[in-house]
Design goal:
Length: 391
């Protein structure tokens, strides 16, 4: 019987859609702004891959939304290793749950969360190994947070399930060390990315399914970025009546700088006729803008970039771009042409021919977005690059 340890941080990613850039100390604020928890949904996506093997798996987990409800809803056999007395879970609950799972000798700990959750788990795993003079067991993250800089996560929830499937079916799985990274969210909300390494954990190293550590820093080739920005600005000037949604990232930030407009490096801004319409909008605010655009028959265009080293275009750090928002944009005349992806060729080369990833949480939408999309890589310089839905 395969013993799968499961921990879900139910508030992971809560601040993403409401433009809080994280969930640390922001739970009540995020909920007040209308944020909806999604960590359990993403965990369910991962576990659904394992449903054909239910007779061979027992899930050891925590009560309530930290794992029990999700596993039981899918029909898995469940054993409670740890019980948290409060619905409002804390970092200490995660750490204590890890110790309980390790004491129950699970084969792997699968967890849903962000980099803060990974830090909590890494700390508990290391302390348990030191206290008991034993080796660390493998751990794998289901990406559910606003920020995913650590190299201990699968590239998508489905990919996390695929990795565990390999273990359940007794296939050869190589183990390696994945870095646990996190950033200072208070600086993050000011547009400053300051990542720090907090340790490492043993993870299954199936390169098809496990992400690389995010490439940090700004693009070094400033001339190429100027060319990319000039191409997009030309398009804006040709269509000055359109509403342009500018996504997060250093490449789009360079575009905003070339427009001489203030920019939310890690948020979503709105521009029309080279003028800032709104800044750092939430998903709800963005949707209201689209409702107004539809009423006035205004065309809407989205400009995004990809996460360096990982290739995600949706689902990481831009939860404001929800499935309904994306569906609206590609539902206009022209379809996917209403999305401009901008990136340097060096950034694409770092992917080593891996496709870009759309992980919106809506499998049908991800399928619609899959295939080849045009990437602007310079002035009047574009390439076709594949986009894949989560596997």
């Amino acid at each position: 019987m395969f013993k799968l340890g499961l921990i879900i941080n139910p508030i992971a990613g809560l601040g993403g859609s409401v433009a809080l850039k994280g969930s640390d100390d922001m739970t009540l604020h995020a909920l007040a702004l209308g944020a909806k928890p999604k960590a359990n949904v993403r965990a369910k996506t991962a576990l659904s891959v394992l449903k054909p093997y239910q007779d061979d798996i027992t899930i050891y987990t925590v009560n309530g939304q930290m794992g029990q409800e999700c596993a039981q809803q899918l029909g898995f056999k469940v054993e409670l290793s740890f019980h948290t007395p409060e619905a409002d879970t804390k970092a200490e609950d995660t750490e204590q749950a890890v110790v309980a799972l390790l004491s129950d000798n699970v084969d792997i700990i699968l967890f849903a969360g962000g980099d803060g959750t990974a830090r909590n788990i890494a700390y508990a795993v290391e302390q348990f190994a030191l206290a008991n003079a034993c080796a660390q067991i493998p751990v794998l993250g289901i990406p559910a947070g606003c920020k995913i800089h650590s190299g201990v996560y699968a590239i998508t929830p489905t990919a996390a399930g695929r990795v565990v499937e390999l273990m359940v079916t007794k296939q050869l799985v190589t183990l390696t060390e994945g870095d646990v990274m996190d950033i200072d969210e208070s600086l993050f909300r000011q547009g400053i990315v300051k990542a720090k390494r907090f340790g490492e954990m043993q993870i299954p190293s199936e390169l098809r399914f496990v992400q690389a550590v995010k490439s940090g820093g700004k693009e070094s080739d400033e001339l190429v970025l100027q060319d990319i920005a000039e191409d997009i600005i030309d398009h804006m000037r040709e269509h000055d009546e359109h509403l342009f949604i500018i996504g997060s990232g250093s490449t789009t930030a360079f575009l905003m700088a070339e427009l001489s407009l203030p920019n939310t490096l890690l948020g979503v801004d709105l521009v029309q006729d080279e003028t800032l319409v709104d800044t750092d909008v939430t998903e709800a605010q963005l949707w209201q803008q689209l409702v107004q655009a539809e009423a006035t028959q205004q065309r809407v265009h989205l400009v995004i970039t990809l996460i360096g080293g990982q290739g995600h275009i949706f689902g990481r750090g831009n939860q404001q771009l929800s499935p309904r928002v994306i569906r609206y944009i590609i539902g206009q005349e022209g379809g996917k042409i209403n999305i401009s992806i901008i990136a340097t060729k060096s950034k694409l080369t770092q992917l080593n021919n891996r496709p870009l990833i759309s992980d919106t949480g809506d499998s049908e939408l991800d399928q619609l977005l899959s295939g080849f999309m045009v990437i602007t890589t310079g002035y009047k310089d574009q390439v076709l690059y594949p986009v894949a839905s989560p596997q």
